[in-house]
Amino acid sequence: MYILFTLQKLLEKLKYLIERFKNMSSENSKYINGFKHTLYKSASLSKEELLTTSQQFFEHLDKRRSVRDFSDREVSKKVIENIIRTASTAPSGAHKQPWIFCAISNSELKSKIREAAEIEEQENYSGRMSESWLRDLAPLGTTMEKPFLEEAPWLIVVFKKVYELDESGEKHNNYYVNESVGIACGMLITAIHNAGLVTLTHTPSPMNFLTKVLGRPSNERPYLLMPVGYAKDPNYVPDIVRKELDEISQFYE
Ligand SMILES: Cc1cc2nc3c(=O)[nH]c(=O)nc-3n(C[C@H](O)[C@H](O)[C@H](O)COP(=O)(O)O)c2cc1C
Which residue, judged by its Cα, is nearest atom 19 of ligand 1? Predict the structure, then answer.
C-alpha cells in the first residue's frame, strides 16, 4: 500500500516536471528566476499609422473636460464595471494594485456623501482656503455647494491601500501607492471620457468622512471622489486654455 502511494506521488511529480519543461521550451513562455513569463506582442504600426493614431487619440482626449452639472440620466452598472476594469489595468509598484474603486448609485448614500462634503467645503470656502487659492478657483466657478454628488447616477470613490491586510490582520507593504493610484485614476478618467460620459475630479478636503460613510477598513484612505454620468444639457465649462507643447516639454535629441 505504502509503495503504491509513493509511486503515485512520484508520478504526480514527474507529470508536473514534464508540464513545466514543456512550458519552459514553449515559444509562448519562459521561466525567469523560476517564474513564468509569457510572450508579449505589442501592436507594431507603420510610421504613418503611428502618426494618425497618436494624433487622433490626442484630439479625442483634448475634448475631455471636468463637468460640474450632471443629468440624472441612468448609466448601467455594466458600463461602470468596464470603466473600473479599465482603470485597474494600470501599472502599479511591484504589481500590488493598491486601489479599490467604490461605485455608489444608492441615493441615500449619495445624500450622506453630499451632506458631509458640503460641511467640509463650507469650512474651506469660509476660512480654510487661502486668499490666493480662492482667487485661483474663481475662474472655475466652484462653490461650497455640490449638487452633482446627488444628481450624477454614480459616484466612484477611489481609495488607496496604504498597506495590505491579510485575513489574520497582518500588514503587508505596498509600494509607490500615490503614483500607482494616480495613474489608475488617470486611466479611470480616460475610460469615462471614452465611454462618452463625464466626470469631475473632486477632492473635498479632508475626505475622511468617506471612510466612515462607506465603512472602509483601516488600511484604506480616500483618494478621489468622482461623480460619473451624462453632462446636463446645455452645459457650460470654464473657458480655460491648456499650456502649449513647448511649455510642458523639453526634448533632448
Ligand atoms: C487632483 C485634482 C483635484 C481637483 N479637485 C477639484 C475639486 O475639488 N472641485 C472641482 O470643482 N474641481 C476639481 N478639480 C478639477 C480641476 O479644477 C480641473 O481639472 C481643471 O480646472 C482643468 O479643467 P479640465 O479638467 O476641464 O481640463 C481637481 C482636479 C485635480 C486634478
Answer: 66
CA–centroid distance, 114 to ligand 1, in Å, is 17
**Looking at residue 24, what is its pLDDT?**
57
The domains located in the chain, with CATH, are 67-234 (3.40.109.10)
**Total-model pTM:** 0.91
Give the residue whose CA is nearest to atom 7 of ligand 1. Answer: 202
Residue 122 φ then ψ, to 5°: -60, -45
* Amino acid identity at 169: G
- pLDDT score at 77: 98
Per-residue confidence band for 7, with pLDDT thresholds at 50, 70 and 90: confident
Select from 94, 121, 80 the least CA-distant residue to 229: 80
192: nearest Cα among 55, 54, 66 = 66
Give the position of cell 486654455. Answer: 241
- Compute the CA torsion angle 194, 188, 65, 104 (nearest 10 deg): 110
Q: For atom 27 of ligand 1, which residue has the closest CA?
A: 65
The whole-number average pLDDT for the span 62-79 is 98
CA of 243 to the centre of ligand 1 (A): 16
Please give the Cα distance from 68 to 74 (Å, whole number): 17
Query: Using CA positions, which residue lies closest to atom 28 of ligand 1?
Result: 201
Is residue 227 within 8 Å of 70, Cβ to Cβ?
A: yes
Between the CA of 2 and the centroid of ligand 1 the distance, in Å, is 70
